[in-house]
């Protein structure tokens, strides 16, 4: 795992325009779910374009430990032969989820619905993130939990003989919490209901329907989403084609907008409307961003995203947009650093419990590079391009891949190089970040 190695600093600096067409690796959310749903399906699920990054590889290892057969062909196609809903086996060792919030929390739901015990561990970042948000509903479903104070990793859970279907209103906008309850509900006899006051990414719902589950989504009187899942379905093996991850594409998109003279196309990007808040915001800022070749693939909207260098203007990003771009605020803050006038981002409380406290990390990284920003309790204001030079600083990544990549992009357009203290963290979600950006003309140097 990245954190066990000595840190490997990396610097990015401005050079020529970024030009070309790239494909980014597969979507992380869909990749985790493909492996997990395949593990509780009888028969062989095939996955093309699985994200081969540390977080998802950790989920593959965990599914093997639970008894599923998970293999990779020479041509990069993955195969999962599962055990059916209710069929998971008790793992022998601990399950190490590394840096992965999604992997660990969704697996807690999946395993919590089974009458097996499992111990979850992770890296220093994952071990400080709150797990009570998932454990609370699982306890209501009959899961026994032994955890450190504050419900942090490492922890052990044991699923009941028969999980209780519950009705659960998700208290914070979180697709991970929603998904954990639905995954536990898969093996609960009866109907599990999850109520989401604010819509979050809906890959669990779309994919469970694709696997043949009996699932409905109703919109309530106050606009809330009411998701009902009938437990103990017989899931049917699928062939899944994972589109490019918009959260990874985001780095090349913003780089193409802020490096003068650039023209970059990212092909085959997932464009699920619950994931595209960043693109909406950039267009509002004046970005020359177009979607080419829009199409559907595997039950999801996809397209090619083309950007050309643009003069950006600061905007106010409304809090209700946050769930559709929750992982993209660090890179939006970088775009905002090159905009004319302030960009105000609100409703960001969830950023404090990601791989790092991203509100603080972004504000610190900008300050280290001469960009003025104001950090509020749950908001961030980036004042935009001032008169002084941008860059020249070193950014503390604190085991956070998105902080690392966002600030390297800052360096590609800054007046002075920007250094991150550890580039290994990018392996969490986007191991090919550096080579893809170099292919477009980006300049990096080991520092
Ligand atoms: O369900 C998912 O795949 C994810 C949900 C989001 O987390 P939250 O549910 O904590 O908002 C997001 O930040 C994460 O990268 C992936
Ligand atoms: C928050 C993220 O991931 P996770 O919660 O899965 O660790 C992310 O990838 O930005």
Automatic annotation (TrEMBL):
<feature type="binding site">
    <location>
        <position position="176"/>
    </location>
    <ligand>
        <name>3-phosphoshikimate</name>
    </ligand>
</feature>
<dbReference type="Pfam" id="PF00275">
    <property type="entry name" value="EPSP_synthase"/>
</dbReference>
<feature type="binding site">
    <location>
        <position position="176"/>
    </location>
    <ligand>
        <name>phosphoenolpyruvate</name>
    </ligand>
</feature>
<feature type="binding site">
    <location>
        <position position="29"/>
    </location>
    <ligand>
        <name>3-phosphoshikimate</name>
    </ligand>
</feature>
<dbReference type="GO" id="GO:0003866">
    <property type="term" value="F:3-phosphoshikimate 1-carboxyvinyltransferase activity"/>
</dbReference>
<feature type="binding site">
    <location>
        <position position="327"/>
    </location>
    <ligand>
        <name>3-phosphoshikimate</name>
    </ligand>
</feature>
<comment type="pathway">
    <text>Metabolic intermediate biosynthesis; chorismate biosynthesis; chorismate from D-erythrose 4-phosphate and phosphoenolpyruvate: step 6/7.</text>
</comment>
<keyword id="KW-0963">Cytoplasm</keyword>
<feature type="active site" description="Proton acceptor">
    <location>
        <position position="327"/>
    </location>
</feature>
<dbReference type="GO" id="GO:0008652">
    <property type="term" value="P:amino acid biosynthetic process"/>
</dbReference>
<dbReference type="GO" id="GO:0009423">
    <property type="term" value="P:chorismate biosynthetic process"/>
</dbReference>
<keyword id="KW-0808">Transferase</keyword>
<feature type="binding site">
    <location>
        <position position="354"/>
    </location>
    <ligand>
        <name>3-phosphoshikimate</name>
    </ligand>
</feature>
<feature type="binding site">
    <location>
        <position position="402"/>
    </location>
    <ligand>
        <name>phosphoenolpyruvate</name>
    </ligand>
</feature>
<feature type="domain" description="Enolpyruvate transferase">
    <location>
        <begin position="14"/>
        <end position="435"/>
    </location>
</feature>
<comment type="subunit">
    <text>Monomer.</text>
</comment>
<comment type="function">
    <text>Catalyzes the transfer of the enolpyruvyl moiety of phosphoenolpyruvate (PEP) to the 5-hydroxyl of shikimate-3-phosphate (S3P) to produce enolpyruvyl shikimate-3-phosphate and inorganic phosphate.</text>
</comment>
<dbReference type="InterPro" id="IPR001986">
    <property type="entry name" value="Enolpyruvate_Tfrase_dom"/>
</dbReference>
<feature type="binding site">
    <location>
        <position position="28"/>
    </location>
    <ligand>
        <name>3-phosphoshikimate</name>
    </ligand>
</feature>
<dbReference type="InterPro" id="IPR006264">
    <property type="entry name" value="EPSP_synthase"/>
</dbReference>
<feature type="binding site">
    <location>
        <position position="101"/>
    </location>
    <ligand>
        <name>phosphoenolpyruvate</name>
    </ligand>
</feature>
<comment type="similarity">
    <text>Belongs to the EPSP synthase family.</text>
</comment>
<dbReference type="GO" id="GO:0005737">
    <property type="term" value="C:cytoplasm"/>
</dbReference>
<dbReference type="GO" id="GO:0009073">
    <property type="term" value="P:aromatic amino acid family biosynthetic process"/>
</dbReference>
<feature type="binding site">
    <location>
        <position position="33"/>
    </location>
    <ligand>
        <name>3-phosphoshikimate</name>
    </ligand>
</feature>
<feature type="binding site">
    <location>
        <position position="129"/>
    </location>
    <ligand>
        <name>phosphoenolpyruvate</name>
    </ligand>
</feature>
<dbReference type="InterPro" id="IPR023193">
    <property type="entry name" value="EPSP_synthase_CS"/>
</dbReference>
<keyword id="KW-0028">Amino-acid biosynthesis</keyword>
<dbReference type="InterPro" id="IPR013792">
    <property type="entry name" value="RNA3'P_cycl/enolpyr_Trfase_a/b"/>
</dbReference>
<dbReference type="InterPro" id="IPR020719">
    <property type="entry name" value="RNA3'_term_phos_cycl-like_CS"/>
</dbReference>
<feature type="binding site">
    <location>
        <position position="174"/>
    </location>
    <ligand>
        <name>3-phosphoshikimate</name>
    </ligand>
</feature>
<feature type="binding site">
    <location>
        <position position="28"/>
    </location>
    <ligand>
        <name>phosphoenolpyruvate</name>
    </ligand>
</feature>
<keyword id="KW-0057">Aromatic amino acid biosynthesis</keyword>
<feature type="binding site">
    <location>
        <position position="358"/>
    </location>
    <ligand>
        <name>phosphoenolpyruvate</name>
    </ligand>
</feature>
<dbReference type="InterPro" id="IPR036968">
    <property type="entry name" value="Enolpyruvate_Tfrase_sf"/>
</dbReference>
<protein>
    <recommendedName>
        <fullName>3-phosphoshikimate 1-carboxyvinyltransferase</fullName>
        <ecNumber>2.5.1.19</ecNumber>
    </recommendedName>
</protein>
């Amino acid at each position: 795992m990245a954190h066990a190695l000595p840190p490997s600093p990396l610097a990015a600096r401005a050079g020529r325009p970024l030009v070309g067409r790239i494909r980014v690796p597969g979507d992380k959310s869909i990749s985790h779910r493909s492996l997990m749903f395949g593990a509780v399906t009888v028969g062989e699920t095939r996955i093309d374009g699985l994200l081969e990054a540390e977080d998802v590889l950790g989920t593959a290892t965990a599914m093997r430990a639970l008894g599923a057969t998970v293999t990779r062909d020479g041509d990069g196609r993955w195969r999962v032969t599962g055990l059916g809903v209710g069929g998971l086996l008790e793992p022998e060792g601990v399950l190490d989820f590394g840096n992965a919030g999604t992997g660990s929390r969704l697996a807690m739901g999946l395993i919590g619905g089974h009458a097996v015990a499992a111990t979850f561990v992770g890296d220093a970042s994952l071990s400080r993130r709150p797990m009570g948000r998932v454990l609370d509903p699982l306890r209501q479903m009959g899961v026994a939990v032994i955890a450190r104070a504050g419900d942090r990793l490492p922890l052990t859970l044991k699923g009941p003989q028969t999980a209780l279907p519950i009705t659960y209103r998700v208290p914070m906008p979180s697709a991970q919490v929603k998904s954990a309850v639905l995954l536990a509900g898969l093996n609960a006899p009866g109907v599990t209901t999850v109520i989401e006051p604010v819509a979050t990414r809906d890959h669990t719902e779309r994919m469970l329907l694709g696997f043949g589950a009996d699932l409905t989504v109703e919109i309530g009187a106050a606009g809330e989403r009411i998701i009902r899942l009938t437990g103990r379905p017989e899931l049917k093996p699928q062939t899944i084609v994972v589109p490019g991850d918009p959260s990874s594409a985001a780095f090349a998109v913003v780089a193409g907008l802020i490096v003068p003279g650039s023209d970059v196309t990212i092909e085959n990007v997932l464009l699920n409307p619950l994931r595209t808040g960043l693109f909406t915001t950039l267009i509002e800022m004046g970005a020359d961003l177009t979607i080419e070749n829009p199409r559907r693939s595997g039950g999801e909207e996809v397209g090619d995203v083309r950007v050309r260098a643009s003069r950006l203007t600061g905007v106010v990003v409304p809090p209700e947009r946050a769930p559709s771009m929750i992982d993209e605020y660090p890179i939006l803050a970088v775009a905002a650093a090159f905009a004319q006038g302030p960009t105000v981002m609100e409703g960001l409380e969830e950023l404090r419990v990601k791989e790092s406290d991203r509100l603080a990390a972004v504000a610190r990284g900008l300050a280290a590079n001469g960009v003025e920003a104001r950090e509020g309790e749950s908001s961030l204001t980036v004042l935009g391009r001032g008169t002084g030079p941008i860059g020249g600083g070193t950014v503390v990544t604190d085991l956070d891949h998105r902080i690392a990549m966002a600030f390297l992009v800052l360096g590609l357009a800054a007046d002075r190089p920007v250094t991150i203290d550890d580039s290994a963290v990018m392996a969490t979600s986007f191991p090919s970040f550096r080579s893809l950006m170099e292919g477009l003309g980006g300049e990096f140097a080991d520092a």
